[in-house]
Amino acid sequence: MDTRTVTMDEVFEELRELLEKKRMKELKDRLDDMNEADAALFIQTLPEKEMAMVFRILSKEHAAEVFACMEIDEQELIINSVTDKELANIIEELYVDDAVDLMEELPANVVSRVMKNATKETRELINQFLNYPENSAGSIMTAEFVDFKKDITVKEAFERIRAIGEDKETIYTCYVTTKDRKLLGVVTVRDMLLSPYEAVISDIMDDNVIYATTTDDRETVAQMFKKYSFIALPVVDKEGRLVGIVTVDDAIDVLQEEATEDIEKMAAIIPTEKPYLKTGVIETWRARIPWLLILMVSATFTSMIINNYETALSKFVILTAFIPMLMDTGGNSGSQSSATVIRNLSLGDIKFSDIFRVTWKETKVALLCGLTLSAVNFAKLMFLDHTGVTVAVVVCLTLIATVFFAKVVGCTLPMVAHKIGFDPAVMASPILTTIVDTISLVIYFRIAGFFLPI
Amino acid sequence: MDTRTVTMDEVFEELRELLEKKRMKELKDRLDDMNEADAALFIQTLPEKEMAMVFRILSKEHAAEVFACMEIDEQELIINSVTDKELANIIEELYVDDAVDLMEELPANVVSRVMKNATKETRELINQFLNYPENSAGSIMTAEFVDFKKDITVKEAFERIRAIGEDKETIYTCYVTTKDRKLLGVVTVRDMLLSPYEAVISDIMDDNVIYATTTDDRETVAQMFKKYSFIALPVVDKEGRLVGIVTVDDAIDVLQEEATEDIEKMAAIIPTEKPYLKTGVIETWRARIPWLLILMVSATFTSMIINNYETALSKFVILTAFIPMLMDTGGNSGSQSSATVIRNLSLGDIKFSDIFRVTWKETKVALLCGLTLSAVNFAKLMFLDHTGVTVAVVVCLTLIATVFFAKVVGCTLPMVAHKIGFDPAVMASPILTTIVDTISLVIYFRIAGFFLPI
Predict the structure, then answer these.
(1) Where in chain A is the domain with CATH 3.10.580.10?
(2) Binning pLDDT at 50, 70 and 90, where does residue B136 land?
(3) pLDDT (0 to 100) of residue B6
(4) Averaged pLDDT of chain B
(5) How confident is the model at residue A4 (pLDDT cuts 50, 70, 90)?
(6) pLDDT-based confidence at A306, cuts 50/70/90?
(7) Is it the case that residue A5 has pLDDT exceeding 60?
(8) CATH fold label, B299-451
(9) Residue among A260, A303, A376 whose CB faces B325 most closely
C-alpha cells in the first residue's frame, strides 16, 4: 500500500507544479485521465480560487463525475463560481441520488439557483425524490436504470443498452417491466452475455425478483446487499411500479454510516452527518453535551445512596476505596453485553424472539465472569491488601452480584428498546452505566450491612 | 419490508409442508428457483438429517452456490453426509475465496477429505491462497476473473466471456494482461457495450489501473471500494503479475467485520469471528474475562488514592458522594472523544498528522463542555443539594479539569497508539477509564485539600 500512497502524493505534487507553471493543457489531460475520486481529492486540496479554476478546465462529462465525489462545502464553492450554463450541465449529468443529496445540504438560495438551471424533467424528478422520507430506500435510490419489455431479444437489449446506457448508474442489472411500469423480472448482462444473441429476455430473466419498496428502511435495504451480494436492487412504489434502484456503492455508504452512528450513540454522542474535522467546536459541543448533562444529573442517585450510608462509610472508610473498582467492573461487564447485543441487532443476527436464549447465555457468562473476578480479587484482598476476610467477602459477593446484574440488564435493555421502537444503541453504555452504578452501590451497602456492624 | 418478511416465513412454511408430504420434485423446483442465500437459510432451519437430504436434491450448479451461503457448522454437516463425488463437485464449483475460508475453519480430518477430492489444480490454488497472510488482500481475493490480451476486439472479448464467463465471480470488470500475466489495463463490460463490436480492447481499456498487492491490509483494500465505487479490484503480486481479484461483496463483509471488531474492542471484548449465538459460554467468557481482570486489577490505583485520603474522607464524607458522578462524567467525556477518533482513524478520515488539529479542537470542546457541566452542577449543588459554596466549588473545578483531561487523553491516546502500531480501539474506553479515574481522583483530592481543612 505504501508505495501507491506515496505515488498519489507525488502525483498531486506533479499536478500542483503543472498548475504553478500554468501548463493547463497538460493539467487538464492528466486530470481527465485520473479516477474521478482522486481528481476530486486533488482539487479539494487547492486554495479556493484555484479550485474553481481547475474544476472548470475538466472535460464536460468528467466534471460532473468529479463534482459528485467532492464534499458539500467545496461543491457549494464550485456552484457559486460557475456560469449558469456550466451549472446546468453539472445538474443534468449528476445521478438523481447525488443531486438530491446536494439539494438537501445546500443553503436555500443556492438550491433555488440550481433548480432554476435544471430542466423541467430533472426538477420534477429531484422534487419527487426529495419527498421520500429520511432514511428510507426512496431517499437513497436513483432513477438511472435500464428497463426493457419482456419480448425483446438479447441483441435488441444490447442495442438498447448502447443507446441509453451512457447515462445509467448501472447497466449490469436490467429490469423487465410491463407497459404500466410494473416490475416483471430482472436480467443481468451476465445472463445475456452467456445466452445466444437470439434468446428472448422473458426466457432468461429471473422472475423471482427480490426488491425493496420506497418506504423500507435504508438500513434494511443495505443489509439485503450483504445477504444477497447484489450490485443493484430495484425499488418499487406502493403499486408495484419500478421507480428506482439502489446501487451497491450507496449500500456501502449506508452500512458505514449506520456503524458510525451506532458507535457514536454507544459513546453518548448525538450523531451528526458532517465529517469530524469539518464540524465546528460549537456543533461538536452540541452533539456531546446533552448526554453528559443527563448522565451527570442522573448520578444524583449514586450520591443519594452514598449520603444515606454516610455514617457507615465514616466508620469503614475502606469500603469507599472499592467503590470505583466495583463501578468500573460493573460498567465494563455491562457494556460488553450491550455492545454485543446492539451490534448483533444492527446486523440482523439476533431478533427480539431470541431474548430468552440471549439472557440465559449472558447469565451463564456473567456467573463465570463474576466467579473468576471475585476469586482473583479475593486472593488480592487477602494476600496483597490484607483487608481481612469480612471486607474481602463483602467486596467479592458484591462483585458477583454486580457483574450478574450488569450483564443481564446490558443484554435485555437494548433488546427491549429495539422491540418497543426505541434506539437500542442509545440504551447502551451511558444509560446502562447509571443503572448499573445504582444497583451495584445498593447491593454493596446491603451486603456490607449484613456482614459489618454499620 | 414487513410484507416481504412475512412472505419469506410463509415460503419457508410451504417448503416445509412439501417436505413433510414428500413432494420432493416440487420442493427441488422451488429451491432451485430461489435465491441461493434464501435457499441456504431455509435448509439451515431443518433438522440435521433432513438438511443433508434436502441439500442433495438441489441441482448441481445451484448446490455449490447454496453451499457457499451456509454457515460453517452446516457446511461441515453437509460435507460429512455427501459422497466423494458430490463433494468433488461442490469443491470444483466453489470460488477459491469461499473454498479457502472453508479450509481455514474445518477440522483437519475434514479438510484432508475435501482436499483429496479436489483436482490437482484446485488443490494447488487453495494451498497457494491459504499461504497469504491473515487479513491481507491475498486472503480475501479470488482467482476467478476474466483476462484478455490487449489486441482483441470487443466482439472477440464477448466470445471469450461466453466461453469462460460461466465460472467467473465477476465478468463485468475484465483485465488486460501481457503474456507473462503483468497487468496492463482494465476494461469493463460497460465500456465494451458502449463501444462498437470492432473496437480494439487496447483502445478502450483504462491503463491507469488502481490495484492492490497481495500483502496490502484487507481493510485498506475494502476502503478503496468505498472511495472508488468499484465492483472488483485487481490484486497483483510483488512482480506486478495479476493473481486475483477482490469483489465488492467481500469488501462489504470486511468493512462490516472491521466495524464489529472496533465496537467489540471499544467494549473491552477480544474479537472472535464466530457469530454471537453460535459461540459457546466458555468461548464468550474467554473473550471477555481478560480485560475485565486487567481493568479490575488496575483499579487498584484508585483504591490506593482513596486509602491515601482516608482521614480526609472520614472528615468530609460528603466528598465521597461525588466520586461516582465525577468518575462517570470523566469516563463519558473521554469515551466520546476516543470513540470519535477511533472511528475516524478506521474510516481513514483522520491521520496521525492531524493530531494537533484534533487535540486543539478537543481542548476547546472540553472547556466548553466542562464549563456547561460545572455551571449546571453548581446551581444544583447550591439550590437543590445545599452543599455550601466551598464543596460546590471543589466539585465544579474538579469537573472542569476532569473533562479536560478525559477529552485530551481520549483523543491523543488512540492516535499515538495508531502511530506506533498498536490497535487504537484497544486503547479506547476501557484503558482510558482507568487513566481518567486515576487522574480525576488525584485532582479532586488536590483541589479539596486546597479549599478544605483536610
Answers:
(1) 147-256
(2) very high
(3) 52
(4) 89
(5) low
(6) confident
(7) no
(8) Tetracycline Repressor; domain 2 (1.10.357)
(9) A303
Mean pLDDT calculated for residue range B46-50: 89
Chain A stretch 29-88, residues whose beta carbon is closer than 8 A to a beta carbon of chain B: 33-35, 37
State yes or no: pLDDT of A270 exceeds 70.
yes
B66-112: pLDDT as tens digits: 999 998 889 999 999 888 888 888 888 888 888 988 888 888 888 88
Spatial distance between the Cα atoms of B4 and A76, rounded to a whole number of angstroms:
40
**CA B89/CA B122 separation, integer angstroms:** 12
Which residue carries 446506457 as its cell? A165
Q: Which residue of B has its CA nearest to A272?
A: B340
Neighbours of A150 (CB within 10 A): 16
- The letter for the amino acid at B62 is H
Q: Is B308 on the interface with A (CB under 8 A)?
A: no
The 3-class secondary structure across B27-55, one letter per residue, is HHHHHHHCCHHHHHHHHHHCCHHHHHHHH
* pLDDT for A93: 87
Q: At what angle do helices A355-379 and A323-346 cross, to 10 degrees?
A: 150
Q: What are the φ/ψ torsions at residue A244 (nearest 5 degrees)?
A: -175, 180
The gap from C-alpha B114 to its chain's centroid, in whole angstroms, comes to 28
Q: How far is CA A151 from CA A158, A192, A199, B193, B403, in A?
A: 14, 14, 10, 21, 68
Residue whose grid cell is 489444480: B121
Listed by number, the residues of chain B in 383-422 with a beta carbon closer than 8 Å to a beta carbon of chain A are 385, 403
Q: What is the mean pLDDT of residues A299-318?
A: 82
Q: Using a CB-CB distance cutoff of 8 angstroms, which residues of chain A are in contact with residue B310?
A: 317-318
Which residue's entry shows cell 444544583? B380
Report the distance separating Cα A335 and Cα A414, nearest Å: 11
B chain contacts of residue A303, beta-carbon cutoff 8 Å: 321-322, 324-325, 385
CB A169 within 8 A of CB A249: no
Domain with CATH 1.25.60.10 in chain A: 2-131
> Closest Cα to residue B178, out of B113, B104, B91, B242?
B242
Q: Kindly state whether A210 is in contact with chain B, defined as any CB-CB distance less than 8 angstroms.
A: yes
Say whether pLDDT at A369 is over 90: yes
Which of B343, B353, B426 to mutate: most A Cβ within 10 Å? Answer: B343
Q: Per-residue pLDDT for A305 more than 90? A: no
Q: Which residues pair with A245 in a beta bridge?
A: A142, A234
Start-end of CATH 1.10.357.20 domains in chain B: 299-451
Q: Which CATH superfamily is domain B2-131 in?
A: MgtE N-terminal domain-like (1.25.60.10)
Residue A6 in this model has a pLDDT that exceeds 60: no
Alpha helices in A299-388 (DSSP H): 300-308, 310-315, 317-321, 323-346, 355-379
pLDDT for the residue numbered B430:
62
pLDDT of residue A430: 63
Distances, alpha carbon A220 to alpha carbons A212, A213, A227, A234, B7, in Å: 9, 11, 10, 14, 16
Radius of gyration for chain B, computed over Cα atoms and rounded to the nearest angstrom: 30
Contacts of A158 in chain B (CB under 8 A): 193
- Three-class SS state of B316: coil
Q: How many residues does chain A have?
A: 454
How many angstroms separate the Cα of B349 from the Cα of each of A275, B255, B426?
A: 8, 15, 19
**Is B321 in contact with A306 (Cβ distance < 8 A)?**
yes
CATH class of residue range B147-256: alpha beta
Name the grid cell of B85. 463425488
Q: What per-residue confidence (pLDDT) applies to B2?
A: 39
Query: pLDDT digit string (tens) for B240-287?
Result: 899 999 999 999 999 999 999 999 988 888 888 788 888 889 999 999
Q: Which residue type sits at B166?
A: E
Phi/psi at B35 (5° precision):
-60, 140
CA distance B370 to A450: 40
Cell of A159: 442495442
